[in-house]
Design brief:
Elements: E1 5-6, H1 11-16, H2 19-35, E2 44-51, E3 63-67, E4 70-72, E5 74-79, E6 85-91, H3 100-111, E7 119-125, E8 129-136, H4 139-144, H5 157-173, E9 179-185, H6 196-205, E10 209-214, H7 230-239, E11 245-247, H8 251-263, E12 266-271, E13 282-288, E14 294-296, E15 300-301
Parallel strand pairs: 6-7, 6-9, 9-10, 10-11
Antiparallel strand pairs: 1-8, 2-12, 2-14, 3-4, 3-13, 5-12, 7-8, 13-15
Helix pairs in contact: 2-5, 3-8, 5-6
Amino acid sequence: MSFRSVEKRGLLSRLSFMALALSVASATAFAQSGKGGPAGRRTETLNVIVRAPEGFQLSKTEFDLYDGGIPQEVESFSRLDTGSRIVLLVDSSSSLRAEATVVQDAVRAIVSELYEDDQMMIVGFNETAEIIEEMTPDLDKLQASPSKIIRKGFPNLYDALIAVSDSLSGQAKTGVEKRAVILISDGYDSGSKTKFDSLLDELQDENIVVFAIQVPDRTRGALLRDKPKPPAALEQLTVATGGAIYPIASVAEGAKAIADDLRRNWYRLIYSPSGINTINVRRILLMPRAKGVVLRTKGSHPGRFK
């Protein structure tokens, strides 16, 4: 299979998804995305990852939601048992501090945790992003893909994340609600045109959850101009979207934890913002009332007219 380079934003999505399918479902996605609602009300949808004691059934009355510091009424809160659409984004740069075999084993460990109705696309990135395997539920194809990853060049991480965000936004327009990126990286970006803050805004606006399998930092803590240090970048990307980080040294445990979040712990929360200004960036806070319950969601809503 020949590799196809993705050199500008949006090309990956155009290669992967049919425009006709997007247009058919666009009205539904428009309402779900928080840009419309019944009787003209604006609604917002949040992905919520719930970690709770075994057997605990969480309802909308057992936590508090704050949007921009103002308490909000939750209209609906329910677990999503449907399959996920996942992009496994793998740093294929030559200076990554992980042997090729270690990265390949990490890919296989993640693929092995997929469920029957999940689908995954595998993308490698250095200066450009390359589709290693198109979005597919075929485990045999996905398990064979790690050997196709070629190590070379430098990592333009932010540009690659923007490209796969565009791809996953196309999935939203076909009605898919559970969309995630699993990133194998140390968080280092070499020369992306995309700015980090713009990347975070887009991921949050598209309701994409980022998980990370963390590779040791190749910069060893060095300061970087106009961007966060690699470990801080991974921390912000995951915390800001409701995801989590796991070390590559424990990738089997991390892959299982991610699979549990995607399958068993993923909830959808819908509310109509009240008393807030949607032009501004607004912090989102979920406060559980019961002990032992942990709720993760995106850290904020980007400003709508920035």
